[in-house]
Amino acid sequence: IAQASGVMFETNDNPSIDDLTHDAFAVLGEGGAVRLSDKHTCSECTQECKAVADFLPAANDAPAVLAMVNMVVMDGIVMGPTHCAFDNCTKPLSNACGKGESFCQIHEREFHNHCRVRDCQNNKFEGTQACQEHHNDRHLYRQSRTKSSLAGVQRMLNRPNEHLAWNSEVPRNVQPHDEDAPEVENENYFSPGCYYCVETICAPCGVVIAWVKFAKSESPTNILKFMEDTFPDESTRPDYICIDKACLVLRTSIQNGSWDEWCKTSKLMV
């Protein structure tokens, strides 16, 4: 891949498969664009478009004009890939596997041996991510996230036909799918942060054309930027873009002026 792309790719000697793929994507990933899918066409996703009808009642009318049109489908998948836990940092974890690490290489060097509790300047207790003072907090944090604890809570809360005073419904503010999540200051950095979703652009036949990770929301602004990054030139743009947020994307595109360019080549559809 590096040779075909004309890119020099170097890595450490004898890396693990996780580290190798992590480093390779950072250099050769092209921001999520899939090179082999560039200008993909097939009988399922590229069809003839008839500008005029085949049957023309007037003898002097021009014959039917056939042109090929194509379509792509955009959608977001909430699957929670991880990134650095530090505030507003979405760099990849220093450990490609993410096991026991919550920082990128920069913040890992910055915090070094410091406790992973916010604003704590004490050194970590040996073999843990917390100092002696916050060792119990770290233990409780891990206990609350074990599979057995979560399964027990789920069984307890989901027991049918049981209404307990302590388990009354609490109003919750659910994040709208197309709005940024509110900024919440974490009390600690014991675990990495998570991306909101992975946005994909696919052909109707299922071929993946490009993908990108959205850190906080699947907002129309993020979607439009993804579209512009994937289809920078008019010649590369599809005729139809199918997306469940077509109305929101169209409104935002009209407001920021980008629709003046997109309307020349593409149509949005739900």
Features of this protein?
270 residues; alpha/beta; Nucleotidyltransferase, domain 5; six-stranded mixed β-sheet; two-stranded antiparallel sheet; 8 helices; 26% helix
Condensed summary:
With 270 residues, the protein is an alpha/beta fold. It has 8 helices and 8 strands, in the order ααβββαααβββαβααβ. The chain has 3 domains: 2-32, no CATH class; 41-79 and 195-269, Nucleotidyltransferase, domain 5 (2-Layer Sandwich); 83-155 and 184-194, no CATH class.
Write structural notes for this entry.
The structure is a single chain. This protein is α/β, with parallel strands linked by helices and 270 residues long. The protein has 3 domains: 2-32, no CATH class; 41-79 and 195-269, Nucleotidyltransferase, domain 5 (2-Layer Sandwich), CATH 3.30.420; 83-155 and 184-194, no CATH class. Helices cover 26% and strands 15% of the residues. The chain contains 8 helices and 8 strands; from the N terminus they run ααβββαααβββαβααβ. Strands 1, 2, 5, 6, 7 and 8 form a 6-stranded mixed beta sheet that branches. The protein has a two-stranded antiparallel sheet with strand order 3-4. β5 (197-202) and β6 (208-214) form a beta hairpin. The longest helix is centred in the first third of the chain and has 12 residues, at 17-28. The radius of gyration is 25 Å and the shape is elongated. The two termini are 36 Å apart. The mean pLDDT is 77. Residues 73-135 form the CxC6 like cysteine cluster associated with KDZ domain. This is CxC6 like cysteine cluster associated with KDZ domain-containing protein. It comes from Laccaria amethystina LaAM-08-1.
